[in-house]
Automatic annotation (TrEMBL):
Organism: Catenovulum agarivorans DS-2
Protein name: SAM-dependent methyltransferase
Domain of life: Bacteria
Pfam family, one: PUA_3
Protein's UniProt keywords contain Hydrolase: no
Swiss-Prot/TrEMBL GO biological process terms: methylation; rRNA processing
GO cellular component entries: cytoplasm
Keywords: Cytoplasm, Methyltransferase, RNA-binding, rRNA processing, S-adenosyl-L-methionine, Transferase
């Protein structure tokens, strides 16, 4: 029989758990009974002895326990994971109708803290980011094989955040497939995804809905797609009728993949350019040259990984938005994004407003954007919201 471990919260620290927030921080714990190891299941109690939840213990992290369930009768086993994955699977199929690629499990928001699973056509890609899901990896993979018997499973747990959980980075096949690359369909366009070498799990599914929104603004326009990665904002822009798209990125591998995607979709080579350059430097060069665009897309990587980087991140966001607004034609549209969870929506809007002031332009928000529907945010876990975007028109 497995050992039973118990953590007791300090007085009045049970409020967030009663509100069903899935995290228990180290400073909230008054006592630990037994010696739970990395990922072990612990029973969470209030100071008055009330049972609150069942959680995964992480002795190395400030998030000391991540809650599996608030139901005392629910065991943490393969059946538990199969039930949670099935529930998410049904929900995601309802909200993603234009693609065979979507986020199946979004961690805490889908009831499986620290677990990310993306489905790309015939491959499931998993990230085990916390102690609990690492401990139960075998059960989780077995549950996936039970539900998706015909899909390959690849692991991309090669991320720094695992260090906070006392875990080493790892990647590779969990259930081998024929290839680490696959073609996905997104609103009629075919996109090549490399789950082994691509960013994150191979692709940015969270921008799916925004790519289609952006395409509408790009019709008949000269478009600059910054931090373009494999060029999918530009792909949708061209198929929607953009005059010309310039994809700008520092990764030649990403640009080469983008070129393959454009050729595969039979796009006119005269209507697009792939440019390997630093976005900050290239925007300044365009400004010096007096070059302008009708539509500019800014989709940078995460600028703030921790609270200590927020001020520096804001400077970066302000700089690129100021430069973009300066080379945007009057009447033109800037679609600007931040995927830094530590940069709130209000702060991001303020940064873009300051950028417009420094650029000496009048700009209006005409639409606000967020992460795709399969990246839903659990109401009692607001930390699940991270991607915000503004559609700004220059007057």
């Amino acid at each position: 029989m497995a050992d039973t471990y118990k953590i007791t919260l300090a007085s009045k620290r049970e409020k967030s758990v009663l509100r069903r927030h899935p995290w228990v921080f180290s400073r909230a714990i008054a006592q630990v009974d037994g010696t739970p190891k990395v990922g072990d299941t612990v029973e969470v109690y209030a100071k008055n002895g009330q049972w609150l939840a069942r959680a995964a213990y992480s002795p190395h992290s400030q998030i000391r326990a991540r809650i599996w369930t608030f139901d005392q009768d629910e065991s943490i086993d393969q059946a538990f994971f199969a039930k949670r994955i099935n529930r998410a699977y049904q929900a995601k199929q309802q909200v993603v109708t234009n693609s065979n690629a979507y986020r199946l499990i979004a961690g805490e928001s889908d009831g499986l803290p620290g677990l990310t699973i993306d489905l790309y056509n015939n491959i499931l890609v998993c990230q085990f980011l916390a102690a609990g899901v690492e401990k139960h990896k075998t059960d989780i993979v077995a549950a996936l094989e039970q539900i998706f018997s015909d899909l390959a499973i690849y692991e991309r747990s090669d991320v720094d955040v695992r260090q906070k959980e006392g875990l080493k980075p790892t990647s590779g096949w969990l259930k081998p497939g024929p290839n680490t690359s696959t073609w996905i369909n997104e609103a009629g366009n075919q996109i090549l995804v490399d789950v082994e070498q691509g960013h994150k799990t191979g692709f940015y599914l969270d921008q799916r809905d925004n790519r289609l929104i952006a395409a509408e603004y790009c019709k008949g326009q000269q478009v600059l797609n910054c931090f373009s990665y494999t060029g999918t904002f530009g792909l949708h822009a061209l198929t929607a009728g953009a005059k010309h798209v310039t994809n700008l990125d520092v990764s030649q591998l990403a640009l080469d993949t983008s070129a393959k995607i454009y050729q595969h979709n039979q796009l006119n080579e005269k209507q697009y350019t792939h440019l390997n350059a630093d976005v900050f430097k290239q925007l300044r060069q365009y400004k010096q040259q007096g070059k302008e665009f009708d539509c500019i897309i800014l989709d940078p990587p995460k600028f703030a990984e921790n609270k200590g980087q927020v001020i520096r991140a804001c400077r970066g966001y302000k700089d690129i938005n100021m430069l973009a607004l300066q080379i945007l034609r009057p009447g033109g549209v800037l679609l600007t994004f931040s995927c830094s969870g530590l940069i709130g929506a209000d702060l991001f809007q303020k940064v873009v407003a300051d950028a417009a002031l420094d650029a000496k332009v009048e700009a209006h928000i005409i639409e606000k954007l967020t992460q795709a529907k399969d990246h839903s945010v659990l109401l009692n876990y607001p930390e699940g919201f991270y991607l915000k975007g503004l559609v700004v028109q220059k007057r």
